[in-house]
Amino acid sequence: MSQPVCVVVGVGPGNGEAFARKFTNFGYRVALLARSEDYLQSLAMQLEGARGYSYDVTEIEKAQSIFQQIEQEVGTISVLIYNAGAGQFANIDQASLEGFQKAWEVNALGLFAVVKQVLPQMRKLNFGQIVIIGATASLRGGANFLPFASAKAAQRSLAQSLARHLSPEGIHVSYVIIDGVISSPRTHQQMPTRPSDNFLNPEHIAETVFFLTQQPRSAWTFELDLRPFKEKW
């Protein structure tokens, strides 16, 4: 029996890398997608059966060729983790049209384009898992989060529509709301006085994401919140 294939879109030294390592450890072949080709190739060398593909989610005209290449070189995709996320953190006076559009392109249009390419492969298998990494901003628009929050709200609504349409086909769509600061060298440097247990651990996030992809179809989760036990909400 061939190994199942997981694609992680938006791989970096945090959640994306943790997802890739988790699925590799459980026997998946993993396709790593991100803009930084050097980083991708370095990580791919550490993970058995993994391959890296340079891909910017805003360059949607490249989506078809990339996902066809993945199917040919890695295998038919059964798991998609969409971890790409970016956005301008600004209020209406500070935000730019370019920043607003870029946030939407990364979080909503990029997801739409990727799902369009992955679905035919999942339908060949008659099952699939699509996990979308969201944010608290998808639920409420902070005054200084206008571009990011509006894009994440669009992403969450897109995820709901996908889940309702695809569930009868055996394709499970789930949306993970990250509520808190993710632990990384960069965030610890930016917040040197913040206690370490006030950060979300990427490995622990990966455990939950993997769990979602293994749920029996009689009890699927659509939306799930993750936050450190000390987070105020």
From TrEMBL:
Gene3D superfamilies: NAD(P)-binding Rossmann-like Domain. InterPro entries: NAD(P)-bd_dom_sf (IPR036291), SDR_fam (IPR002347). The keyword Iron does not apply. It comes from the Bacteria. Transmembrane segments: none annotated. The keyword Protease does not apply. Keywords: Plasmid. This is Short-chain dehydrogenase/reductase SDR.
